[in-house]
Amino acid sequence: MNSFDSCDLIKSKLKICETVIKYICWGLLVVFILFIICAIGVYFKKKPLAWNGTDYQSNSEYYKQLTGIHEFSQLDNLRLDRLSSPRFHPNNGKNVIYLRTQYHMPDLKGSSTTLHWIDLETNKTVQLTRPIWNIHDQSFYWIDNKTILFLSNRASSNLTQLFQLNLPDDVSVTSHYLDPIQITDYPLNIDHLLVNRQGTRLAFSCQVYANLSIQQTADRQTIEKARSISVYKFDKLFIRYWNEYILGPRNHPFVVSIERNKNGIFNFTTTPTDVLFDVDADSPTRSFGNSASQWSFSASGNKFAYTRKHDETSTVAWSTNSDIYTVDLTASKLISVCITCENVAADANPRYSPIDDQVLVYRSQSIPGYPADQVKIKWYNGSHSKRTLLDRWDRTIDAITWSLDGQSLFLELGEEGRHVIYKFSNILSASSTPIRLISSGSSHDANIHPTNNEIFIFTHDSITKPCNVYLYESLTSMRPITIHNNNLLDKIRMSTVVETFNFTGSKSEIVSGWHIQPVSGTAKKAPLAFLIHGGPQSSWYDTWGYSSNFQIFASQGYAVIAINFHGSDSYGQNFTDSITGQYGTLPYEDLQIGLQEVLQRYSYIDGNRVVALGGSYGGYMVNWIAGHPEMSRRFKALISHAGLFDLREMAYSTDVVVLMEHEVGGFTPYENPDAFEKFNPINHVANWTQPMLISHGRHDYRVPDTQGISAFTALQRRGIPSRMLYFPTEGHAISNPHNSLIWYHEVFDWMNKWIA
Residue ranges of the alpha helices (H) in 609-704? Predict the structure, then answer.
């Protein structure tokens, strides 16, 4: 090899090296760029949604700029601010904090729940936390003058976590939103929160596997998600409940000690203890249980009580049994002690006395397997001695609140179509009688003044007024303290004529109902919307509705009639019990007699233009009416939402088996199939003639969607004009605002078509 060849070889190798180095450099550059992109992605993924002030407008600001007045609609209804959970300043009661949920204006594309403060002397209102769409604050506790602990999905992970909000010395001059401090950063949502009076302990819940920690549950879910398993395996009921599948994780309460650090920020001083570890059960119970009603700390904060069902076996599906357990938090090992296990009916909602660690009250039923049994108050003193308070009172107690001196109870309950509040003093005296404080509309969530047991705040609404926070000072002094929706209400026109009426119904007993005049008045003949409530052990109440609302129909020119037939609650337990085994008789007769009564009583109603609408049991009754021509032909059209069509099949497919078994008289469908066929709409399809609109949600596991699909199939097969609205993302009720608008549009389209 000569020198020239050697030079060429060296040059060739150098060129190869240069190429290799170039590719390595380019590779490193690409890796670096990818790293930066990933880092930016992670940063923005973890960063909470930014607030765009130009994208925020309250309904008050939006409606203030409108010039005309228009008939109230479901769109207006959904734009209303929703207020809840009012709480007094813990020391002086001069201020109140509450939750306010707002919707994106004007298109409803998103919602936000924030904390609000109001001064009761000046009515000055301050929005404490920043409204960010799809961010929701909840479950707050006013610990002391300047500190609030609450849950929110403001976390960088977008999961719901524990936050602390520090208030300035003078909140009234605050001109900007306060930024909360994130306390926890768990890989799972915190779903519920309860803080003791001393601010030394709190309880929260996470959905965990019974025998796994929070982190272990998150790790398992990550692995399962990566495996993309699409098969569910069950060995017991529930398979699904309300609108979700029960796939393993349970609501478990975790109890932990807390204290402030040197910067005044609360932190955990112990490891949170899973009170239900290794127990396959929920507390709070699904799907409507919450910590505010189902958990309680004792006066000293050293004891904890909670409610749970016995989810460990399938009997939970055909049992109403739930029990109350107490835990001594000072013990080295936390052990749950059942204080109600001798009762196999429902016991729930413990409330410790604010002055005595040994005393608590709770709500209790006595008939196993009967969800609508009367709920009474039990008093327990720690030595397993129990007393039934107001044992002869024919009322079901919905909620209990102690006075701060531990001598009285404030009771919330349904009474003749209204949600009222009573005060019950000298609770252990046999001669003591509750005094009704509020008798109109619907009142909830009473919070007692910290220095005056005669004063409380609460939420209140009615058929003519959406929810506001009210201050009660005496029988003659009750006033709203919030005005968020006033500008909206000033720009809409609603019916102001709302009245109750009575008539002699089935069994020659008095039956009540609501009559709402159309906005257009009574000078001309008006069509009638004949509404049938669900339950059936429920009532049409003097309350504001965001899904079902009488005013929506009245604003469309319809008179509204809503009858509380036999089986309705709030009219005494005997009236409620009467529907058992009479699913298709007593209520049907009440509706039949009631319709004739209102057509005679209200001459402006056009008896030839009547439409019947009902949901759930109301949908069942529409299907039942459809098969009985003596009633069905009185209606131009029918509308059934989430209605029962085949009771026997329903008994095998509903999530809560006990509901159907009790309704027919306490039978199973295999022991007594005739009990399910006696009032079964499917047996009368041959008599169906009237046009019907069916609507149903895919995730309705209370009344499965096949009930609605089957009814629609029957209508189509019979050649009857019919239409079906199927909502693939909804459950038993229509909860999505845009779906609600569609539902009302289709309902009025159907009604107007057939009454024309």
Answer: 617-626, 629-632, 647-653, 657-663, 673-677
71 touches 519 (CB < 8 A): yes
Kindly report the backbone phi and psi dihedral angles of residue 351, in degrees, each rounded to the nearest multiple of 5, phi listed first. -140, 105
378: which strand partners? 362, 388
| Count of C-beta atoms within a 10 Å radius of residue 125 | 17
For residue range 25-67, list pLDDT tens digits in order: 555 554 444 444 344 444 433 444 455 678 899 999 999 999 9
Structural domains in the chain?
A: 216-252+279-389 (no CATH), 390-491 (2.120.10.30), 493-755 (3.40.50.1820)
Q: Which tokens hold the place of 497?
A: 């004529």
Kind of pairing between the strands at 605-615 and 637-641:
parallel
Query: Which residue is it, tokens 């001459």?
Result: 603
Residue range 345-356, pLDDT digits in tens = 999 999 999 999
The one-letter code for the residue type at 365 is: Q
Evaluate the CA torsion angle 635, 636, 640, 646 in order and state its sign.
positive
Give φ, ψ of 232 to 5 degrees: -100, 140
Cβ neighbours for 354, distance < 8 A, ≥ 6 positions apart: 197, 299, 402, 403, 404, 405, 406
Tell me how far CA of residue 135 lies from CA of 51, 99, 111, 152, 155, in angstroms: 10, 13, 7, 7, 9
Non-local (6+) Cβ contacts of 731 within 8 A are: 242, 243, 697, 699, 700, 701, 702
Nearest by Cα to 258 from 240, 237, 247, 272 = 272
For residue 561, which amino acid is it? I
